[in-house]
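Database export, one record per block. Field names are fixed; values are copied verbatim from the stored entry.
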Amino acid sequence: MQYVWQHRLWPAAHMTAVSGERIDIIDPGLLNTGSGPDFFNAKIRIGDRMWAGNVEIHVRASDWLRHGHNTDSAYDSVILHVVGTDDTRINRPDGREIPQLVMACDPSFRKHYDDLVCRYADGPSCAPYLPAFSSLHVADWLSALAFERLYRKSSLATALADRFEGDWTAAVYVLLARALGFGTNAEPFERLALSLPLRVLMKHGDSTLAVEAMLFGQSGFLDEAPSSDPYCARLKEEYAFMSAKFGLQAPPSLGWKTGRIRPQNLPHRRIALLAAMISGGFRAGYGVLDVKDAASARALFDTAPSDYWRRRYSLGGTQDSRVSRTLSNASIASLIINVVVPVLSAYGNRYGQPELHERAIDILTALPPENNSVVRAFTEASVECRDAFSSQALIELRRNYCDLRKCLYCRFGHRILSRKAILQ
């Protein structure tokens, strides 16, 4: 009932109070999420008089008494009592009757709601309704979702830059580490980067071995690496020297996940890639703000790990001829989406350079759409996804609306529910 009231889902231009007076809702008010009446500062015309005040909503009018509102002064300013069932009349402390409006929700409205918020299985619950939506309506919502996701990622970039006292290169380093976790190991990678400052790595940025040793040492993977492997033995020796030199303390447990992960996505190999990107000047960090388009963004991450990793997935692992030395195009696109685009947008917004924010959007629209189960589920439901801008929108929709059962706050869900809300 609150949702119907808040979003004006009643079909008639005006309604009638139980007293017979005409009611026109000028402004339903602001939803109150705390104690007190359900809506604040509503503007309502009752008969020929305009009222400004609060609105209380109940399934039954008698709930007013059952909830003790008759003895709570916070409800003295209620100008309209909206009810599903008119089983009693309510008076103010001075004896005057509070105007009452019957707004009985259609049972099918609740059924539509229950259908929408059911468990997300192979596709969105609203999939049967989506083909009937206009392309304009879909495009408008996807655009809003894409910006919503971009602003959240940009906020993370800005927060990191502030944490490092305006050092945007250090912020890129943490964002890149997190992005190399590709979701599953994003948090451990971020904690790894925060435990090992970029300025420490850059002091030995000309030595791939030193950078690898510090990263693998801080990750905890050296503890389980076989000393019989000459490369692992050198890393352990180098890390012992570097940790003593810089006072490094490896985090007790980063929570790495290695089960049910494709070999090329194992954190060992991603750490080796991070080391390769940092050693030799950290081109990705210092060049991100100079990116002009998707092609120049790709060049930042066109890096191969050291020779040891040419045919290996893990420390001390056996060589495998199937190992791809460089990142796939899809993986590079993911780094662009999660590192380059947010940093350009955040930096442009922070320093009043809107052209950088626009460049970030242009890069997203130039990249192909991501190919994952979320995107496929919506495209199978007739939602067109042309580029990474659209696929980011669909991921935002799934993660922050579908998975959280927030159908009431989704424009698709709202459109479905608004078809028939109250009995007439």
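Remark 1: Residues 13 and 24 are 8 Å apart (CA to CA).
Remark 2: The chain is about 45% helix and 10% strand.
End of record.
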